[in-house]
Amino acid sequence: xxxxxxxxxxxxxxxxxAEAGASKHTLAxxxxxxxxxxxxxxxxxTASVDDLSRLGSGWADLAPSTVARRSAALRRxxxxxxxxxxxxxxxxxxxxxxxxERPLPRxxxxxxxxxxxxxxxxxxxxxxxxAVRNLALVELxxxxxxRATELxxxxxxxxxxxxxxxxxxxxxxKERLVPISTRAHAAVESWLEHVPSGTLWLFPSGKxxxxxxxxxxxxxxxxxxxxIAPERVxxxxxxxxxxxxxxxxxxxxxxxxxxxxxxxxxTTQIYTHVDSARLVELVNSRxxxxxxxx
Length: 294
Known about the structure:
Structural class: mainly alpha
Strand content: under 5%
CATH architecture of the largest domain: Orthogonal Bundle
Distance between the termini: 68 Å
Radius of gyration: 23 Å
Helix content: 55-70%
């Protein structure tokens, strides 16, 4: 990358941090995507339509989702250049636009979730610290729909007696309120008896908090303990189950978007495909003309 292009990228990332509140991970991802484009076309700030048209063949071996992400980064970069008066034309119409089919999330049915909880409760009844911790983890994953990173990084005082919500720091360092059930409250209170008072984290491990990798291992072991194939279960699968089962119970899609911390309702709408049978039944039973004869 030329010094001029590097300066433009630095200026673009400064804008993203200041105006869009992008996290350091998001900024690093943008920088990487822009650098990968330069590897193919050689230039960036002065790239033409012909230059960008070469990206389709240059990225032919990449997954469609990767191509779409890199194209989106370039589109935003060129938009920034135009907004700041650094160039007049927008060559981004030549960027590849792969057709994406959003995969349906893997979920557990309600009976499988019940089996996981029964097995976790049986183990926690022994009073063993790790079993008590594991029950608190799964209660928060399924009961509040937390992401793995949001869960393991909860501060020690995140769950307070009599407070039905907890504040979560989500993607892009955006805060949101999520509900915490009476069951989860009880599980966390039991776990806090094992947490040293001086620690910063609700789920400490060494000098920091529990890692996402360790959480993944714990959840899979809990699935196996309940007689469920471990490869079918992960922290994110329990988050998907939280969303799908809420939707099945009649939750509003906008409310679900807020609970999950999705910036775009389109991300939340994937659950309408998972629960399509309930939605068909809802239309047939609740539509004003549902019982009108032909």
